[in-house]
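lol forgot to send this yesterday, sorry. struct tokens for the thing we talked abt
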């Protein structure tokens, strides 16, 4: 299922443009950090999505330029760019938004973990979350800025402090892990990734990323299995190293973010059975102190419709999950404590 959506999100958006002059519902989507490496191609893909009627782009610098450029693309949606120098910009950008994607923040350089970004990105996400909680408290908030394992709990704390927290509307975007898991297995098996649907559970960093091969009927053993899992867990590092200090995954992430937004829009506009793995406020491992967890989530008009349990794991996957839960607990507590100490 996940792999099927890969095609539909990227190419289907362009195709649908030809058939559908207007989307079923008018939907305003905001991107915060829209002039960045992820923000620009993500905004481009959203402009190609006929379910989006209004695209609202914010960045501390450069968003009006990006908006002017994208606005010439001949799809129906309107585009407006905002930067902080104009008073009330972020409020206007966010008011009426149904979906807010947040790729604002610094990316990794070679040798860095996602947690190394915490000190810079925590306050960026907190401030943008405050603006969203004030201007569009009912919007679906999609956190892309790393470390996602901690920036999602930070956002939740901000919304709680303002009395508007809705756990059904807050998502850590882990779609890129799912995209990689599907692509990498298709490379190993020489198959079409559209037919490879690998659920990825846990979180979004290193050992917290747990691909479940057994549920897809894939049986890798020994070094081949370990290399595959390491590649899914540390696929981001391949890109960081190849870019040599100029950033992390931006284009594949834009595709993944656009796919997740498309899934939410489809569900919001009435399509049933839309399922994506995503990092949400989850009951699955709460008894172990892990309050946020990524698993397959069915999306609906109100956001999270149903959180699926992880299902049957083999012994190796179970051992990966145990490491994941330990790391995640620390990442979540770090985010929550920071947010409470730095309101
Ligand atoms: P970038 O540096 O190219 O772009 C970030 C943008 O955010 C810049 O345009 C910057 O001006 C803007 N920005 C910074 N502070 C801001 C603020 N307070 N308000 C509004 N905009 C602000 O970085 P890139 O490559 O786009 O990555 C962004 C984030 O996404 C990073 O934290 C990165 O680690 C994360 N990421 C997440 C992935 C995921 O799977 N969830 C995958 C890849 C990256």
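and heres what i got for the seq, position by position
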């Amino acid at each position: 299922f996940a792999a099927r959506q890969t095609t539909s999100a990227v190419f289907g958006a362009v195709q649908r443009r030809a058939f559908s002059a207007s989307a079923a519902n008018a939907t305003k989507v905001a991107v915060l950090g829209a002039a960045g490496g992820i923000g620009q191609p993500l905004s481009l893909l959203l402009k190609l999505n006929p379910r989006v009627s209004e695209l609202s782009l914010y960045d501390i610098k450069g968003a009006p330029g990006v908006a002017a450029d994208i606005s010439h693309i001949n799809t129906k949606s309107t585009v407006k760019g905002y930067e902080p120098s104009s008073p009330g910009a972020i409020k206007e950008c966010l008011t009426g938004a149904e979906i807010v994607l947040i790729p604002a923040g610094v990316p990794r350089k070679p040798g860095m973990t996602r947690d190394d970004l915490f000190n810079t990105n925590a306050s960026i996400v907190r401030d943008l979350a405050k603006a969203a909680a004030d201007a569009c408290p009912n919007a679906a908030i999609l956190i892309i800025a790393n470390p996602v394992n901690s920036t999602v709990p930070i956002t939740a704390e901000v919304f709680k402090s303002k009395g508007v927290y809705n756990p059904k509307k807050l998502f850590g975007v882990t779609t890129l892990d799912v995209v990689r898991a599907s692509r990498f297995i298709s490379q190993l098996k020489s198959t079409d990734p559209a037919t490879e649907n690998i659920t990825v559970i846990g979180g979004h960093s290193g050992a917290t990323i747990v691909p479940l091969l057994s549920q897809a009927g894939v049986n890798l053993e020994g070094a081949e299995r370990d290399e595959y899992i390491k590649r899914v867990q540390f696929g981001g590092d391949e890109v960081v190293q190849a870019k040599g200090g100029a950033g992390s995954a931006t284009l594949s992430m834009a595709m993944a973010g656009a796919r997740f937004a498309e899934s939410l829009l489809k569900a919001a506009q009435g399509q049933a059975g839309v399922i994506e793995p995503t990092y949400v406020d989850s009951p699955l491992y709460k008894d172990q102190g892990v309050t946020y967890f990524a698993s397959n989530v069915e999306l609906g008009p109100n956001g999270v419709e149903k959180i699926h349990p992880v299902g049957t794991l083999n012994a190796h996957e179970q051992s990966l999950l145990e490491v994941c839960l330990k790391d995640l607990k620390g990442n979540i507590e770090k985010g929550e404590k920071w947010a409470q100490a730095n309101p």
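The radius of gyration is 19 Å. anyway ping me if u want another try
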